[in-house]
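Changelog entry

Holo records now carry the ligand SMILES as an explicit input line rather than a separate metadata file. Below, a converted record for zinc ion, shown in the new format.
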Amino acid sequence: MKKQLCVLAWAAAGLWPCAQAQDPARALGELLRQIKPGTQSAPATTRLPAANELLQLLSESLERVDQPKEIEIGRQLAAVLLGSKLLHRDLALQTYVNRLGRWISLQSSRPQLPWTFAVLDDPGFNAFAAPGGYVFVTQGLVQRVDEAELAGILAQEITHVTARHHLQALAAKARSGMLTRLLAAQVRPNNAAAATISAQVLALGRDLYASGLGQADEFEADREGVTLAARAGFDPYGLPSVLQQLRAAAPDNPLFTLTLGTHPPPQQRLDQLEAAMGSRLDALSGQASVAIAQRLRMH
Ligand SMILES: [Zn+2]
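Structure line, unchanged by the conversion:
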């Protein structure tokens, strides 16, 4: 109850919930500055040997990837994602999603990560995360959900980050030989290193986001995401409600193809959630639905 009041107060006042929080507009600007090609302040060559080192490290041992390295890998994967999609231009929407995401991330097991949330200008129904705290949702998703549903999706993505699911998937790809082949292809003079290393990150990132995470990771993120959303004061049935929408989506609708192709079937996810949740969270459900457009008008 206290949490719910807190969320209402947060939403009504439009304030950041704690001292760690940042101005979302600045965070977004910072995100762009950090990861958009051509807007980096440091010369690209100062970063690239680190990229090579990080990929090598990832292929050798996941345990040696500490938090700063995890954030750097995430920054590069986020750049891969933003390389193919634009950020949505509506700053009020970006601010809202960033606030919502940061609020939920503060209730997670890793509140100290530099969490950044952004909306991609894409009509599809998708959400992506990258190590270190980067979370993206598409505009096509945001316009089809209410606040509790969006909270459920963000909480699911936050769980992928806190549980280091992407890093584990990348390490598994490395062990399967994919990274070795990519690294082996890098026998070129130093002055060509820039193109080669970014090509490696690009290849790995594209492969990761096209194939998705493992089913067990998705089921875990569903379970933990529902609990996290509830802990942040939102209706725990937000995520199940999204899964019902996905279940109803025509499988050949191109807007849903990627999400459906990279996740277990929605009915299976619902069954797993039901088995895990039972009626445990029923007491927290039943809150009135808040439309995102309504929330934006309040600011
Ligand atoms: Zn997921």
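Spot-checked after migration. Residues 2-36+64-160+213-297 form one domain. The chain has one domain: 2-36+64-160+213-297.
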